[in-house]
Amino acid sequence: MCGIVGIVGKSTVNQTIYDALTVLQHRGQDAAGIVTVDVNAFRLRKANGLVRDVFEPKHMQRLQGNAGIGHVRYPTAGSSSASEAQPFYVNSPFGISLAHNGNLTNTLELAESLIRKRRHVNTTSDSEILLNLLADELQETRSLSLSADEVFDAVAKVHAQTRGAYAVTAMIIGQGLVAFRDPFGIRPLILGKNETATGTEYMVASESVALDAVGFEVMRDVAPGEAIYISLDGQLFTRQCAVEPSYAPCIFEFVYFARPDSSIDKVSVYASRVNMGAKLGAKIKKEWEDHDIDVVIPIPETSCDIALEIARCMDLPYRQGFVKNRYIGRTFIMPGQQERKKSVRRKLNAINTEFKGKNVLLVDDSIVRGTTSEQIIEMAREAGAKKVYFASAAPEIRFPNVYGIDMPTSNELIAHGRDADEIAKIIGADGIIFQDLTDLVEAVRMENPDIKRFETSVFDGHYITNDVNQSYLDHLTQLRNDDAKANRNKDIGTNLEMHNECHP
Ligand SMILES: O=P(O)(O)OC[C@H]1O[C@H](OP(=O)(O)OP(=O)(O)O)[C@H](O)[C@@H]1O
Ligand SMILES: NC(=O)CC[C@H](N)C(=O)O
Ligand SMILES: [Mg+2]
User: Taking burial as the number of CB atoms within 10 A of a residue's CB, which of 111, 279, 362, 411 is the most buried?
Assistant: First the structure.
């Protein structure tokens, strides 16, 4: 899940984009990039690493201009190479730079069609393909100065060819900023503004928290299939560019990805998590009527709001029994299983007194590979817990994700082909309980009943874009299982990469 941002401002935007990316860091820890438009040239800095490490003062000084886009990356296609960090750049027409959150599902088909059009894609990234597709459609216009309608026509043609999930910001030299969201709105995108003495500044971002952090006011979510165009002189245009748009936002944004202080599609992420806690608390009370739980303990950080509500519903004490090292990032979005495994104990440590002699209910937002739960249960026992129960605010994750979450192979999922008892046995829990899917959907929908459905494929195997079959999933397994990724990334660093980087 990456984070994207785009701004057309009235003064230099480098610091604003940087600040926005720092609050979107939870969406991608692998690489970061910013492109600004300095008169008629792009200024680019992108590299592997966290935002605070990628941009040194010397880079910031060169990122001049009143408009720009930014990206934080969590790779879900291609490799982790710095050359696949975003934004991507293509020189024709105009000069376009693009940042993408999501994952395309017809990448191969699109790559072939681009080859037939004599377009070259230099990396294995699906986002570079998306950029070339947009460029190719804009090329068709032949205008030297684009109208908003010409930009929207190009986006409509991109929609017609592209399958999968994509929220995009793209900067076109001499023209403006275009942002669009796939026809199901799988990935989030929000629009905001800032009134200044010299006019209105506009900004789009993955989450509202990015607007809050830089003092922009939220205008509204970008609708599924909709495109936003902001000319460099600051005029805002919008148009629906998809033929049959319909809301199906990814439910995992609410479970795990997004920050609780964000609002996505008019749903407060925090409120949806509290609702998840209420639903799960009610289920535990009903199904474990004679339970012997003494205390509810969250597994920081994402599950804290959920666990607190479970404790309240069950009339049990809530204790923060694990301390999180604030300098270690999110475990699940780390690139390899070894690194993920090692990081759990470096990240979380138990306060023994909260466990000694007690029956504890550990709460997490989700169990994906079981990396966290298995180790955390072991830690709870080492800290002296008598019994360790486990509650997951998401149902069993049994199917791969193809829309921008790196869960490409079912074999890596602990719940794949296993029932709750078998999962409890593997992670070493005395009992386990999962949220029902209908309750999870309801927990989010309660905050915005206008959303009729969500993208829930990891739980039910139903892929909203209707183009995902077993042979596609097998292909993905080959391409993106942990071993394949590790092999592919072995050469990184020795490869010659073609991207603009600021030399020391
Ligand atoms: O079953 P697993 O494969 O371990 O994945 C699930 C865990 O990973 C995430 O935590 P993470 O540490 O990424 O982030 P957080 O601090 O926001 O909870 C999520 O909140 C679960 O705790
Ligand atoms: N998580 C994402 O949104 C990833 C975007 C894109 N597919 C990449 O791998 O760079
Ligand atoms: Mg967690």
Answer: 362
